[in-house]
Predict the structure.
Amino acid sequence: MSKYYCLIAGLPHVSLDDTKLISSVADFKQEVNSVLSDFDRHLINWFYLKYDNRNLLQYVRKDAKEDFDERGVFSMEEIAALCDLLKNEDRIPVDIQTPAYIVAFIREYFACLDAEESIDWNMMEDKLSALYFEAAIGCGNEFLSSWFEMNLNIRNILCALNCRKYGLSMERYIIGNNEIAVYLRHAGTRELYFGNETVYLTELTQIIEEKDTMEREKRLDLLRWKWLDAHSFYKTFDFEAVITHIICLEMLERWLQLDKVLGEKTFRKLVFEMKKESAVTLNEFKEKNK
């Protein structure tokens, strides 16, 4: 893989506690696409494809409530064209460079429609996630493969802990077929043990007990952030440093947006309470001056 001395040297330091976003993921994507080698550009697309998953689900559900996410690899027109093509054709033309997992998902979706089956969208989303993780873990880059597998493990371990807490079936909610996914499906009521992955269980068991949802999510991102720091430390000018920067940017972008949304909700609540209080005061004034 290529070295990116100038690009990495010019990157600003990013911290999860930053209060301002210097560059968005979409902006950085445009900036680095022309710099990356063809091979590395193909690899980095595995990260962006999760936005395509979201856009694809939005399209097939005909959900206009959410905006199209520009951070994906494909435009909405390309997603629509692919769905139309697969609805009527058994194969895709060789000039359409679409990941096989997306093709498999779209075909399964249309198979459900043809069979006039009712669609469980939660299950369809889990199916797409499972296909995505399996494909991404096999991307051919050790760093990215480990990153995706760690996130799959975190998702499944948290899911397993919640299933035990609320008496739900792990079979229904665990996705993927890696070693930990298979183990969780057959763990029953036994104490969970993951060998070298025990560190996940130790930290996740503590995190899941956090009552504050925002704090719990932030602790999960801190766990991921530490993993990125540890695994990219000796890859200073390599592709791994570029993808690490993008992942960290995304986490920061998400948290700044969440803080903004939370701030707006708090402001609206405050205004509502002020209006409510003013209405009560006005009514009391009217009653006294009748």
Remarks:
- Residues 105 and 129 are 10 Å apart (CA to CA).
